């Protein structure tokens, strides 16, 4: 009860404060956008100081602080996306941060349609996640203080990243996001796997961050500023410096590759599942990985001047989408399936963004009408993905909370026990699978259409389109598999696992391990199911915003946008529903879902028709299965590469340090010691010795100055 | 009029005698006395050049030097006295605790 009071009271208070701040005529929430990250960051400090006095161990403070941030974010998003206060441009407010003779770094906020969209997604989803954590983390006791403090900071810096007005300020928040993800992935730091997953996440993204920093240095050296408004305002200057822009954008995209877990830096995200499930939900749906997509979308005015970067982004996205989806098909850990699906969907977003940027460049070169469909589609997918992925993660969190395992083979039959969770997750699955009229359908279709649109001009987009289509089918398949394995069938069944037998390396034999599983699950508490229901609603319906009013494309767009009259965009609906491309992607999506259903629907005995024997019987499938289960040996390859190169390098450095550097230092020390051993003998303690040395020295001086100098012809 | 070179040679000889006394003697009182000899050598130079240049400044300096030398001897003897009380000796060879 007191929880409801806290939640609604703080939301009402935040709304009141927002109205108080914007009550004057010409102010809008955009003018106080700087407060958005401040609320969460302040609540981070407050939780650290006062968290242990709170009966919910900091949870109430986090809910209030993040709630304030969310209300303000949604206020800004409302003004930007609905009221269109930016009028297709941007609103910036700055203060001098520090300045020199020739430059000044400023901090402030830069709000446009993109920032508005991200504020909507981050503000909304992260608030639901924080509320959900109140129920999910309750078993952790006093450690919740640390959890809630870190999650408040995480949300705060992500919101800061979104509203920042320069690459420099964004980079600071970018790094803070990395730090927070490190802290939260390693929340159970006493588990070695969690500790190493946290380190892995931090170090792998750091590889990307180095590139990002390099890109920013190139930008600053070339243009002398890192402010968005100054960088983006002069397209002629950008196209004059095409070479610098190309390298800068490639490097910036390197940062996005690390943060958004794109190939080949995707290895950290599946391991990041070691953190609490709520953290995974936050990382996958709202913060962290979305930062990479945001960065690329933010750099769009630069990227459209570099076709190479655009193609590179699209190819990376397409390839990542495909390989991540292929690995998701064989994973048994429910969270790992979702992790690979996130990588795959992020690949989709990059595919869309890259295709859009290339289209803009192509259109500008040939004097055609500039229309970045891929940009809108990619960001549209970002929004939809945030909703259904948060839903799926929170749902899987509720499942894990109930059955205390993450292995889908040991689940099954949860549909009766957890009706709300299973329905909500079912809707999320249908949405990500791209079934018609669910949100994922609209955005995935738009991305594929944007890629297909480029095919005529550049052949590589044809290959990417096929990859995307194939990925869509695979996505539908593995998500159906996830739902069927978790929820269908009776509550108890026998688990079969194929493991290599002891003499596998010689004989190639496999053994089947059997164990009985009984599931006693219960529905999650209401503080967890209500966020699920809200997200399920959005996962189903958020796709329709393309048709409402002037459409999604009229607020989040690059270049020009088409809009038609009327409250609902019937023309667009016609265009989508009658297109052959749409029919094709619906077809592959349905195929995936049906195959998933046929293969993985648990029967009355709890077994899936797609038995493990099927995999192990054929050489091709078993080898493919092993290959994919081992994550394409990417992690192994990285380890091997690390051992070979970095260890050798480290050994050389170690030798150099021990022998050469230490040798010099120790040599100087021992020479000094030997010399001083001799010199100290002069201090004999006999007064006479001192006196004779003094007089002798004086005599020597006299002889030198009065005899030697004149003889040699020198003078003092 | 005696040539100043004679004074200079004389005072140099006195100075060297004093220095020799300081270095060679083991008895602290004799060392103090040798230091007085060195001061006297300096005083002779002052007086000699004072009369040579017809300038009284040198002689005034000698008065100061004499005064300070007396004070120095007083302090030195006091130190030696207390040294003797503590160590039962003023042989410099035995007072070498400042040694490395």
TrEMBL record, chain B:
List the keywords (alphabetical): Membrane, Oxidoreductase, Transmembrane, Transmembrane helix, Transport
What organism is this sequence from? Marine Group III euryarchaeote
UniProt family annotation = Belongs to the complex I subunit 4L family.
Q: What protein name does the entry list?
A: NADH-quinone oxidoreductase subunit NuoK
Question: What does the entry give for GO biological process?
Answer: ATP synthesis coupled electron transport
Q: Where in the cell is it found?
A: Membrane
Under Enzyme Commission nomenclature, its number is 1.6.5.11
Alphabetized Pfam families for the sequence: Oxidored_q2
Q: Does the keyword Oxidoreductase apply?
A: yes
């Amino acid at each position: 009860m007191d929880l409801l009071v806290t939640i609604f009271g703080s939301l009402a208070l935040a709304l009141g404060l927002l109205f108080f701040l914007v009550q004057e005529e010409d102010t809008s929430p955009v003018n106080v956008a700087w407060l958005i990250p401040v609320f969460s960051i302040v609540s981070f400090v407050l939780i650290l100081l006062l968290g242990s006095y709170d009966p919910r161990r900091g949870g109430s403070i986090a809910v209030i602080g993040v709630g304030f941030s969310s209300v303000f974010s949604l206020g800004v998003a409302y003004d930007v996306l609905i009221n269109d206060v930016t009028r297709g441009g941007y609103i910036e407010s700055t203060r001098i941060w520090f300045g020199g003779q020739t430059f000044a770094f400023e901090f402030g906020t830069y709000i446009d349609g993109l920032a508005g969209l991200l504020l909507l997604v981050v503000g909304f989803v992260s608030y639901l996640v924080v509320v959900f954590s109140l129920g999910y983390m309750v078993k952790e006791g006093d450690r919740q203080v640390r959890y809630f403090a870190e999650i408040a900071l995480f949300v705060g810096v992500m919101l800061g990243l979104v509203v920042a007005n320069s690459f420099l300020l964004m980079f600071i928040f970018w790094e803070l996001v990395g730090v927070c993800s490190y802290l939260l992935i390693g929340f159970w730091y006493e588990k070695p796997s969690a500790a190493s997953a946290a380190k892995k996440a931090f170090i792998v993204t750091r590889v990307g961050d180095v590139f990002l920093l390099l890109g920013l240095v190139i930008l600053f050296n070339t243009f002398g500023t890192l402010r968005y408004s100054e960088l983006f305002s002069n397209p002629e200057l950008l196209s004059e410096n095409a070479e610098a822009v190309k390298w800068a954008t490639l490097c910036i995209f390197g940062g996005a590759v690390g943060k958004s877990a794109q190939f080949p830096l995707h290895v950290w995200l599946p391991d990041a599942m070691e953190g609490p499930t709520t953290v995974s939900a936050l990382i996958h749906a709202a913060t962290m990985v979305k930062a990479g997509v945001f960065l690329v979308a933010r750099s769009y005015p630069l990227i459209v001047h570099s076709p190479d970067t655009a193609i590179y982004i699209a190819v990376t996205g397409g390839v990542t989408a495909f390989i991540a989806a292929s690995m998701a098909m064989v994973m048994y850990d429910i969270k790992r399936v979702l992790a690979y699906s996130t990588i795959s969907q992020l690949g989709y977003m990059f595919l869309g963004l890259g295709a859009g940027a290339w289209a803009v460049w192509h259109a500008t070169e040939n004097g055609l009408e500039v229309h970045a469909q891929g940009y809108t589609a990619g960001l549209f997918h970002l929004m939809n993905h945030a909703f259904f992925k948060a839903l799926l993660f929170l749902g899987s969190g509720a499942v894990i909370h109930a059955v205390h395992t993450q292995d889908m083979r040991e689940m099954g039959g949860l549909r009766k026990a957890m009706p709300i969770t299973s329905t909500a997750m079912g809707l999320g699955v249908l949405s990500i699978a791209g079934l018609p009229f669910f949100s994922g359908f609209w955005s995935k279709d738009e991305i594929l259409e944007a890629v297909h649109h480029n095919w005529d001009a550049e052949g590589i987009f044809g290959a990417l389109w096929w990859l995307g289509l194939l990925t869509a089918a695979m996505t539908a398949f593995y998500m159906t598999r996830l739902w069927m394995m978790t929820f269908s069938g009776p509550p108890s069944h026998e688990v079969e696992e194929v493991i290599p037998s002891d003499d596998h390396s010689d004989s190639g034999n496999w053994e089947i391990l059997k164990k009985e599983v009984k599931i006693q699950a219960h529905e999650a508490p209401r503080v967890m199911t209500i966020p699920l229901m809200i997200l399920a609603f959005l996962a189903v319906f958020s796709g329709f915003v393309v048709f409402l009013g002037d459409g999604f494309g009229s607020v989040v767009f690059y270049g020009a946008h088409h809009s038609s009259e009327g409250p609902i965009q019937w023309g667009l609906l016609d265009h989508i529903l009658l297109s052959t491309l749409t029919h094709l992607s619906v077809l592959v999506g349905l195929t995936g879902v049906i195959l998933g259903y046929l293969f993985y629907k648990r029967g009355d005995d709890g077994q899936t028709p797609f038995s493990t024997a099927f995999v192990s019987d054929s050489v091709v499938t078993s080898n493919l299965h092993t290959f994919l289960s081992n994550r394409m040996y990417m992690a192994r390859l990285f380890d091997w590469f690390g051992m070979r190169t970095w260890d050798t390098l480290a050994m050389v450095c170690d030798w150099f340090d021990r022998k050469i550097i230490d040798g010099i230092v120790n040599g100087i020390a021992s020479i000094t010691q030997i010399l001083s051993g001799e010199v100290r003998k002069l201090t004999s303690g006999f007064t006479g010795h001192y006196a004779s040395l003094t007089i002798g020295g004086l005599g020597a001086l006299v002889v030198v100055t009065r005899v030697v100098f004149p003889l040699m012809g020198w003078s003092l | 009029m005696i040539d100043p070179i004679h004074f200079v040679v004389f005072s140099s000889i006195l100075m060297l005698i004093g220095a020799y006394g300081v270095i060679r003697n083991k008895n602290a009182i004799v060392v103090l006395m040798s230091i007085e000899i060195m001061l006297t050598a300096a005083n002779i130079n002052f007086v000699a050049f004072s009369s040579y240049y017809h300038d009284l400044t040198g002689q005034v300096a000698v008065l100061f030097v004499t005064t300070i030398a007396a004070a120095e001897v007083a302090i030195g003897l006091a130190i030696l006295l207390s040294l003797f009380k503590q160590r039962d000796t003023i042989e410099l060879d035995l007072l070498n605790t400042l040694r490395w």
